[in-house]
Amino acid sequence: MDTINQIKKKIEKNISYVLEAGAGSGKTYALIQTINYLIETKGEKIQLNNQRIVCITYTNVAKNEIIERLQNNPLVLVSTIHEFLWDCIKPYNKQLLIEFDKINTVNNKKEPSKYESGLINRIKSVEYSDRKFSDFENGKIGHDDLITLSLKMFENNKLLTTILASKYPYILVDEYQDTAPETIQSLVDFLLTRNKKKILIGFYGDSHQKIYNTGIGSLNEYIISKKITLITKPENYRSSHSVIKLLNKIRTNIEQKIPDGIEKKQGSIQFINCTNYTDKEKNQKTKEYEDSLVPLKNVNYDNIISTLKKKGWNFSENSEDKILIIANSRVAKRGGFGDLYTTYARRYGQGANEALLKRENPITAFFVGSMDKKTSIERKTGIEHLVSFYENKNYNDIIHFLKRNDDTSVNLRKHEDKKIIIDKIEELIKIRETKKVKDVFDFLINNKLIKFSQGMLRFIERIKTDTEGLDENTKKRIEKDIGFNSSLMELPYIEFVNLFKHTQNQNVFSTKHGTKGEEYRNVLVVIDDTSWKSQYKFEGYFDNSDNSNERKERTKNLFYVSCSRAKENLVVLALSKMGEQAMKQIEVWFGSENIKQIK
What we know:
Elements lengths: L2 H10 L4 E5 L5 H22 L4 E5 L2 H10 L6 E5 H9 L3 H18 L16 E2 L11 E2 L1 H14 L1 H10 L2 E5 L6 H14 L5 E6 L14 H5 L4 E5 L7 H10 L17 E7 L11 H25 L10 E5 L2 H8 L2 H11 L3 H6 L4 H7 L1 E2 L6 E2 L3 H9 L3 H11 L9 H20 L2 H10 L7 H10 L8 H18 L4 H10 L5 E3 L8 E8 L10 H5 L6 H15 L2 E9 L5 H11 L4 E4 L1
Parallel strand pairs: 1-7, 1-8, 2-3, 2-6, 4-5, 6-7, 9-15, 9-16, 10-13, 10-14, 14-15
Antiparallel strand pairs: 11-12
Helix pairs in contact: 1-2, 4-6, 5-6, 6-8, 7-8, 12-13, 13-21
């Protein structure tokens, strides 16, 4: 019986299930098919009962894609997990205050100087703030605490779960593996268990594609306890025979195959192990040794790129081929904005990814725009968007951009006025390529090409603040911002140009984390155990020597996701040397004929 018919059977018997769907299997299509089946067969009843089908997604991008595929059908509520949870619990303000106060009390015991007890006496309501962290004193709950708060609300409020079951008889959860364990607990242990006859929950995803540390990963515990039943999807519509054969060796819980009617490409796989490094000297520090290998690693990398180009791989902008690299810092370096990333990392630490690559920092947005977090639509407000409009001859967009920023700079009634604007933009294009960030920044302000956002104004005001008399924490934060700004202004502006290309997916580099769901003709996966030691250890995964099960699982999933992006040909390049035991396992997976040693 094919997958969709198995799902239909579960629906008719009202049995909750999990669809375990390997890479390239058409999981989202199966999800849409399920929703359409529910609309066709249960829609009239759902409408009469004033109910809705719920589809929960992990990201706004997925949410918008599903809404579009369903043509905005009013019978279906498509929502991110945070939106859905908040929608469920927000009517119960009295209970929310009690549970929110409990979370604050727990925090108070850990950090009494930061959290004051007795919060329930100081706030009258709780609101969702769509931010990572909560602002307890103002009654604003953030992403992380919303998950905890929802669990407590589901657990301690039976009426809530009864009402939800009567409103939403069918709940489908996309990318279940990245959903927080607490949320799965809320949905299965409390909502489903209490209302088995009234509700069906379907989970869609792949335990081997968990890429976020906060996700549950596997639902085996719930399958074994028979709270939900397992359905597997063995098709792979994406990859060549060689790649699928490799994927089936990496994982054993699904045996994938190319479905009938799909062109069967042979493709190829290769593993390249770099062993041409000197050994570490007796008293040499590890970091010093690893740094000494970087020049040779770069040579190895460049040689492989050159070889692949000769074989027809295309590494130009917007190509069908992709290079996947583990660490953001490496991607930034290869993408031509390495110093920019380092500058952000010094100031924001692990938050550099959000501040720079996700463009959640006002300075980043000033130069390269940002993305609306709710709709995932590009906000074309950065100066690089203006340049892009000009280079693509989108003159109406240029006018809208300039008018939005400063009405006085736009007057197109005379030819002379048009020429002034064109001359300004052309001069900007030239200085972008050769000058520092400060030079471009000053040019933009002097020529009134862009105005500051509120966030940018606050930052400028902060770095001008007299720190005398301020408390130590505030003083340190301002001093860090001043140092960050000084370093940033001295960087070559071309790094922002390269960052913009990266955000628009115009360059060939990507982190392996950011590729789930994507596919490319040819894929080069670059692994290096010196890149992110606390999170990933490829040699320890291959030879099973890593004593951290969490890291081993994380490495396995990242390796699987990376390899499964390839439609035709896959090359894995190990820039850090893989030992003898690791190579034995790699040989089992890839075959000795597909292994190359660089000596």
